[in-house]
Amino acid sequence: MDPEQLKTFLIMAPQLFVGACLLLWRRPTPSPPAQEPCWVGTGWDVAAFFSLALAFLFVLPDLVYFFSPKNDSSSYLCSFLGTCAYALLLTRLLRSRAFSFTEGLSPARLSLGRALLRGVLHYLRATPLLFLADIFWLYFLSAFCAMGLPLSLEPQELLWKLENASPLMLALIVPIVCAVAPFVEEVLFRGGVHRCLKSVWGKWPAAFLSSVLFATLHGNWVAFFPLFVLSLLLVSVYEREGRLLPCVCLHGLFNLNGILLTLASR
Q1: Do residues 128 and 23 make contact, with C-beta atoms less than 8 angstroms apart?
Q2: Cα–chain center distance at 183
Q3: Which of 3-17, 34-48, 66-80, 100-114 has the highest mean pLDDT?
Q4: How far apart are CA 11 and CA 257, in angstroms?
Q5: d(Cα 150, Cα 36) in Å, to the nearest integer?
Q6: pLDDT of 40-58, one tens digit each?
Protein backbone atom coordinates (compact mmCIF):
# COMPACT_ATOMS: atom_id res chain seq x y z
CA MET A 1 0.00 0.00 0.00
CA ASP A 2 1.56 3.29 -1.12
CA PRO A 3 1.38 6.46 1.05
CA GLU A 4 -1.53 7.89 -0.97
CA GLN A 5 -3.62 4.74 -0.50
CA LEU A 6 -2.69 4.63 3.19
CA LYS A 7 -3.95 8.19 3.73
CA THR A 8 -7.22 7.38 1.95
CA PHE A 9 -7.62 4.23 4.03
CA LEU A 10 -7.02 6.12 7.30
CA ILE A 11 -9.66 8.70 6.33
CA MET A 12 -12.35 6.31 5.07
CA ALA A 13 -11.95 3.16 7.18
CA PRO A 14 -13.10 4.67 10.53
CA GLN A 15 -16.04 6.39 8.85
CA LEU A 16 -17.15 3.20 7.08
CA PHE A 17 -16.80 1.11 10.23
CA VAL A 18 -18.77 3.49 12.46
CA GLY A 19 -21.34 4.07 9.70
CA ALA A 20 -21.90 0.32 9.24
CA CYS A 21 -22.32 -0.09 13.01
CA LEU A 22 -24.88 2.72 13.12
CA LEU A 23 -26.79 1.19 10.21
CA LEU A 24 -26.91 -2.20 11.97
CA TRP A 25 -27.83 -0.72 15.37
CA ARG A 26 -31.56 -1.06 15.93
CA ARG A 27 -32.68 2.07 17.71
CA PRO A 28 -36.20 2.99 18.80
CA THR A 29 -38.15 5.01 16.28
CA PRO A 30 -38.61 8.56 17.62
CA SER A 31 -41.89 10.36 17.38
CA PRO A 32 -42.08 12.32 14.11
CA PRO A 33 -41.15 16.00 14.47
CA ALA A 34 -43.24 18.91 13.31
CA GLN A 35 -42.82 18.72 9.55
CA GLU A 36 -42.27 21.79 7.47
CA PRO A 37 -45.27 22.67 5.31
CA CYS A 38 -45.42 22.09 1.60
CA TRP A 39 -44.96 24.99 -0.76
CA VAL A 40 -47.63 27.65 -0.26
CA GLY A 41 -46.12 30.45 -2.32
CA THR A 42 -47.20 31.86 -5.66
CA GLY A 43 -45.51 31.47 -9.03
CA TRP A 44 -44.08 34.96 -8.61
CA ASP A 45 -42.45 33.89 -5.37
CA VAL A 46 -40.78 31.00 -7.19
CA ALA A 47 -39.49 33.18 -10.04
CA ALA A 48 -38.28 35.96 -7.73
CA PHE A 49 -36.53 33.59 -5.33
CA PHE A 50 -34.58 31.62 -7.92
CA SER A 51 -33.78 34.69 -10.02
CA LEU A 52 -32.27 36.20 -6.91
CA ALA A 53 -30.34 33.01 -6.24
CA LEU A 54 -28.87 32.87 -9.75
CA ALA A 55 -27.99 36.57 -9.67
CA PHE A 56 -26.05 36.36 -6.44
CA LEU A 57 -24.40 33.03 -7.20
CA PHE A 58 -23.18 33.95 -10.69
CA VAL A 59 -23.52 37.67 -11.41
CA LEU A 60 -22.22 39.15 -8.16
CA PRO A 61 -18.92 37.16 -8.17
CA ASP A 62 -18.28 38.38 -11.73
CA LEU A 63 -18.91 41.98 -10.67
CA VAL A 64 -16.53 41.64 -7.74
CA TYR A 65 -13.94 40.04 -10.03
CA PHE A 66 -14.19 43.00 -12.43
CA PHE A 67 -12.97 45.38 -9.71
CA SER A 68 -10.46 43.03 -8.09
CA PRO A 69 -6.72 42.64 -8.78
CA LYS A 70 -6.13 39.88 -11.31
CA ASN A 71 -4.12 37.22 -9.48
CA ASP A 72 -4.34 33.49 -8.88
CA SER A 73 -6.50 33.86 -5.77
CA SER A 74 -8.87 36.51 -7.08
CA SER A 75 -11.45 34.09 -8.52
CA TYR A 76 -11.69 32.22 -5.21
CA LEU A 77 -11.95 35.49 -3.32
CA CYS A 78 -14.74 36.67 -5.63
CA SER A 79 -16.65 33.42 -5.24
CA PHE A 80 -16.23 33.64 -1.48
CA LEU A 81 -17.48 37.24 -1.29
CA GLY A 82 -20.34 36.67 -3.73
CA THR A 83 -21.55 33.49 -2.07
CA CYS A 84 -21.30 34.99 1.42
CA ALA A 85 -23.24 38.05 0.26
CA TYR A 86 -25.98 35.84 -1.13
CA ALA A 87 -26.09 33.74 2.06
CA LEU A 88 -26.42 36.87 4.21
CA LEU A 89 -29.13 38.32 2.00
CA LEU A 90 -30.99 35.01 1.91
CA THR A 91 -30.86 34.78 5.71
CA ARG A 92 -32.21 38.32 5.95
CA LEU A 93 -35.05 37.54 3.52
CA LEU A 94 -35.98 34.40 5.41
CA ARG A 95 -36.14 36.34 8.67
CA SER A 96 -38.21 39.12 7.14
CA ARG A 97 -40.56 36.64 5.41
CA ALA A 98 -40.17 38.40 2.11
CA PHE A 99 -41.66 35.37 0.33
CA SER A 100 -44.78 33.57 1.45
CA PHE A 101 -43.29 30.09 1.09
CA THR A 102 -40.74 30.80 3.83
CA GLU A 103 -43.45 30.70 6.49
CA GLY A 104 -42.74 27.83 8.83
CA LEU A 105 -39.38 27.07 7.23
CA SER A 106 -38.06 26.02 10.65
CA PRO A 107 -41.05 25.25 12.88
CA ALA A 108 -39.03 23.60 15.65
CA ARG A 109 -35.95 25.28 17.07
CA LEU A 110 -32.70 23.36 17.17
CA SER A 111 -29.39 24.57 18.58
CA LEU A 112 -26.33 24.56 16.35
CA GLY A 113 -24.62 22.02 18.62
CA ARG A 114 -27.48 19.52 18.45
CA ALA A 115 -27.87 20.10 14.72
CA LEU A 116 -24.17 19.38 14.23
CA LEU A 117 -24.40 16.20 16.33
CA ARG A 118 -27.39 14.97 14.34
CA GLY A 119 -25.67 15.92 11.11
CA VAL A 120 -22.58 13.89 12.10
CA LEU A 121 -24.69 10.83 12.94
CA HIS A 122 -26.65 11.07 9.70
CA TYR A 123 -23.41 11.57 7.75
CA LEU A 124 -21.80 8.48 9.27
CA ARG A 125 -24.88 6.39 8.47
CA ALA A 126 -24.80 7.70 4.91
CA THR A 127 -21.06 7.07 4.36
CA PRO A 128 -21.29 3.32 3.47
CA LEU A 129 -24.12 3.99 1.00
CA LEU A 130 -22.27 6.88 -0.62
CA PHE A 131 -19.07 4.82 -0.78
CA LEU A 132 -20.87 1.96 -2.57
CA ALA A 133 -22.61 4.41 -4.90
CA ASP A 134 -19.25 5.95 -5.83
CA ILE A 135 -17.65 2.56 -6.57
CA PHE A 136 -20.65 1.35 -8.59
CA TRP A 137 -20.78 4.55 -10.66
CA LEU A 138 -17.06 4.52 -11.44
CA TYR A 139 -17.27 0.90 -12.68
CA PHE A 140 -20.41 1.77 -14.65
CA LEU A 141 -18.76 4.75 -16.38
CA SER A 142 -15.54 2.80 -16.99
CA ALA A 143 -17.53 0.06 -18.72
CA PHE A 144 -19.15 2.60 -21.04
CA CYS A 145 -15.79 4.23 -21.74
CA ALA A 146 -14.37 0.81 -22.65
CA MET A 147 -17.19 0.50 -25.19
CA GLY A 148 -15.96 3.67 -26.88
CA LEU A 149 -18.37 6.26 -25.51
CA PRO A 150 -16.70 9.69 -25.10
CA LEU A 151 -17.35 10.12 -21.38
CA SER A 152 -15.03 12.20 -19.22
CA LEU A 153 -13.83 10.60 -15.98
CA GLU A 154 -12.30 13.80 -14.67
CA PRO A 155 -13.34 14.80 -11.13
CA GLN A 156 -15.11 18.05 -10.38
CA GLU A 157 -13.06 21.10 -11.38
CA LEU A 158 -12.80 22.36 -7.82
CA LEU A 159 -11.32 19.08 -6.59
CA TRP A 160 -8.50 18.86 -9.11
CA LYS A 161 -7.70 22.54 -8.57
CA LEU A 162 -7.19 21.75 -4.88
CA GLU A 163 -4.22 19.55 -5.76
CA ASN A 164 -2.12 22.65 -6.50
CA ALA A 165 -3.91 25.11 -4.24
CA SER A 166 -1.90 27.45 -2.04
CA PRO A 167 -2.69 27.83 1.69
CA LEU A 168 -4.48 31.11 0.90
CA MET A 169 -6.69 29.40 -1.70
CA LEU A 170 -7.49 26.61 0.76
CA ALA A 171 -8.41 29.18 3.40
CA LEU A 172 -10.89 30.70 0.94
CA ILE A 173 -12.21 27.45 -0.49
CA VAL A 174 -12.88 25.49 2.70
CA PRO A 175 -15.41 27.95 4.24
CA ILE A 176 -17.26 28.17 0.90
CA VAL A 177 -17.39 24.44 0.28
CA CYS A 178 -18.02 23.27 3.85
CA ALA A 179 -20.28 25.99 5.27
CA VAL A 180 -21.62 28.63 2.90
CA ALA A 181 -22.39 26.43 -0.13
CA PRO A 182 -24.16 23.69 1.91
CA PHE A 183 -26.35 26.32 3.58
CA VAL A 184 -27.27 27.96 0.25
CA GLU A 185 -27.88 24.66 -1.55
CA GLU A 186 -29.99 23.16 1.24
CA VAL A 187 -32.23 26.22 1.38
CA LEU A 188 -32.56 26.17 -2.40
CA PHE A 189 -33.01 22.45 -3.05
CA ARG A 190 -34.52 20.97 0.11
CA GLY A 191 -36.25 24.07 1.46
CA GLY A 192 -37.27 25.36 -1.98
CA VAL A 193 -37.30 22.92 -4.91
CA HIS A 194 -38.25 19.80 -2.93
CA ARG A 195 -41.06 21.52 -1.05
CA CYS A 196 -42.39 23.07 -4.25
CA LEU A 197 -42.45 19.74 -6.09
CA LYS A 198 -43.81 17.90 -3.04
CA SER A 199 -46.86 20.13 -2.99
CA VAL A 200 -47.61 19.05 -6.59
CA TRP A 201 -46.47 15.40 -6.95
CA GLY A 202 -45.90 14.12 -3.42
CA LYS A 203 -42.79 13.39 -1.37
CA TRP A 204 -40.89 10.70 -3.25
CA PRO A 205 -41.47 11.90 -6.84
CA ALA A 206 -40.34 15.30 -5.59
CA ALA A 207 -37.29 13.71 -3.96
CA PHE A 208 -36.35 11.98 -7.23
CA LEU A 209 -36.81 15.05 -9.44
CA SER A 210 -35.07 17.47 -7.06
CA SER A 211 -32.17 15.01 -6.72
CA VAL A 212 -31.77 14.73 -10.49
CA LEU A 213 -31.70 18.53 -10.70
CA PHE A 214 -29.24 18.78 -7.81
CA ALA A 215 -26.82 16.28 -9.37
CA THR A 216 -27.16 17.69 -12.89
CA LEU A 217 -26.42 21.28 -11.91
CA HIS A 218 -23.04 20.24 -10.51
CA GLY A 219 -22.04 19.50 -14.11
CA ASN A 220 -19.83 16.42 -13.68
CA TRP A 221 -20.45 12.86 -14.88
CA VAL A 222 -18.23 11.24 -12.25
CA ALA A 223 -20.06 12.97 -9.40
CA PHE A 224 -23.60 12.62 -10.84
CA PHE A 225 -24.78 9.38 -9.24
CA PRO A 226 -23.06 9.87 -5.83
CA LEU A 227 -24.60 13.37 -5.66
CA PHE A 228 -27.98 11.94 -6.66
CA VAL A 229 -27.77 9.43 -3.80
CA LEU A 230 -26.56 12.18 -1.45
CA SER A 231 -29.58 14.31 -2.38
CA LEU A 232 -31.99 11.43 -1.71
CA LEU A 233 -30.38 10.92 1.69
CA LEU A 234 -30.62 14.64 2.42
CA VAL A 235 -34.32 14.60 1.55
CA SER A 236 -34.78 11.61 3.86
CA VAL A 237 -33.04 13.44 6.70
CA TYR A 238 -35.01 16.59 5.95
CA GLU A 239 -38.33 14.75 6.10
CA ARG A 240 -37.32 12.89 9.25
CA GLU A 241 -35.93 15.86 11.15
CA GLY A 242 -38.33 18.51 9.88
CA ARG A 243 -35.45 21.02 9.83
CA LEU A 244 -32.71 22.17 7.48
CA LEU A 245 -29.78 22.52 9.89
CA PRO A 246 -28.97 18.77 10.17
CA CYS A 247 -29.02 18.60 6.35
CA VAL A 248 -26.60 21.54 6.14
CA CYS A 249 -24.23 19.79 8.59
CA LEU A 250 -24.42 16.48 6.70
CA HIS A 251 -23.80 18.25 3.38
CA GLY A 252 -20.87 20.20 4.83
CA LEU A 253 -19.24 17.05 6.22
CA PHE A 254 -19.63 15.31 2.86
CA ASN A 255 -17.86 18.21 1.13
CA LEU A 256 -15.15 18.31 3.82
CA ASN A 257 -14.50 14.60 3.32
CA GLY A 258 -14.07 15.18 -0.41
CA ILE A 259 -11.52 17.92 0.29
CA LEU A 260 -9.59 15.69 2.71
CA LEU A 261 -9.47 12.84 0.20
CA THR A 262 -8.25 15.21 -2.52
CA LEU A 263 -5.53 16.65 -0.29
CA ALA A 264 -4.48 13.13 0.73
CA SER A 265 -3.80 12.32 -2.93
CA ARG A 266 -1.40 15.25 -3.40
Answers
A1: yes
A2: 8
A3: 3-17
A4: 8
A5: 43
A6: 555 556 666 666 666 655 5
Alpha carbon distance 24, 125 (integer Å): 9
The pTM assigned to this predicted structure is: 0.79
Q: pLDDT tens for residues 159-191?
A: 666 767 777 777 777 888 888 788 878 877 888
Separation between Cα atoms, residue 262 and residue 163, nearest integer Å: 7
- Spacing of C-alpha 161 from chain mean position: 19
Q: Residue 227: which of 187, 254, 197 has the closest Cα?
A: 254
Instruction: Classify 104 in phi/psi space as left (phi over 0), alpha (psi -120 to 50) or beta.
Output: left
Return all residues near 261 (Cβ < 8 A) that are at least 6 apart: 8, 11, 12
Amino acid at the residue 70:
K
